[in-house]
Fold this sequence. Notes:
Blueprint: E1 2-6, H1 10-21, E2 27-32, H2 35-45, E3 49-52, H3 61-68, E4 76-81, H4 87-92, E5 97-100, H5 105-122, E6 137-142, E7 145-150, E8 154-160, E9 163-168, E10 171-175, H6 179-185, E11 190-194, E12 197-200, E13 204-209, E14 215-219, E15 226-227, H7 230-241
Parallel strand pairs: 1-2, 1-3, 3-4, 4-5
Antiparallel strand pairs: 6-7, 8-9, 8-12, 9-10, 11-12, 13-14, 14-15
Helix pairs in contact: 2-3
Amino acid sequence: MRVVIADDEPLARERLRSLLAAQEGVDVVAEAGNGEQALHACAELQPDLVLLDIAMPGLDGLEAARHLASFEPRPAVVFCTAYDAHALSAFEAAAIDYLMKPVRAERLAAAIARARTFLAGRDGQPQDHRGQQARSMLCARLRGSLRLIPLDDIHYLQAEEKYVVVHHARGEDLIEESLKSLEEEFASRFIRIHRNCLVARHELVELRRGTGGQVQAMLRHGKQPLEVSRRCVATLKQELRHL
C-alpha cells in the first residue's frame, strides 16, 4: 500500500511515519505540509491511501479530500486531526475513517484494514458526489501534475468529447469531470445555456439575437458570444432580470 502523509506539523508526520513503518506492506511515498502539496503528490504518485490533517494553511484537508474523490484511481482518505468537530464534514468528503490525535497504533491499523477493503472494491464503482459540500476550486491534472482553478476565476465550462474545457481568467484547461455533475455540484454558480455549456452567473451580461436568428449570450470577459439553445432562453432571460 502506497501512502501519502499530509500534515503541516513535522512532528505529526514523523509520528505517523513511525507508526506506518510497523505495518506490513505499507510504503510512505511522499509527505506534504498542506492540501495543495498533497494533491500534487497524489497526481504524480497515485497513492492508495492519503492520511490527511484537516486544519492546514491554504487548501485545507476537507477540500483536498473533495478533490481526491474525483481522482482516477481514487485513493482512500483517512483524516488524522486534533479536533472532533469535523467528523460529519469528513465523511461527507468521502473519507473512510477519522482518527483523533495523538493517533494510536491500533486505530491506525484498523484504518489501514478499512483502506484495503475500500481498494479491493474500488475499481468499477461509479462515483457519486451528491451531498458533498461544494469545492471552491476545480482541479486540472496536467501530465502528472495539476492546476487548481478558483471558481471565481471561471468564465464558462464547455463539454468536449469526454472532457470539459474550463475557460478561466488565465486561459483554458481540461478536466475529466462530466458537465452534468458540475452543474449539480455548482448549481448556484453556473447556469446552463446549451447542452454542452455552463456559464458563470456573474459572467452573464445580456442576450442578443445573431444575424441568423439564433440567440447568443454575451459574457463580461468573453472574447466571443456563446450560442444559447432554445430550451434555455426563457430561463436565461429570467436569470438576467435578477442580476
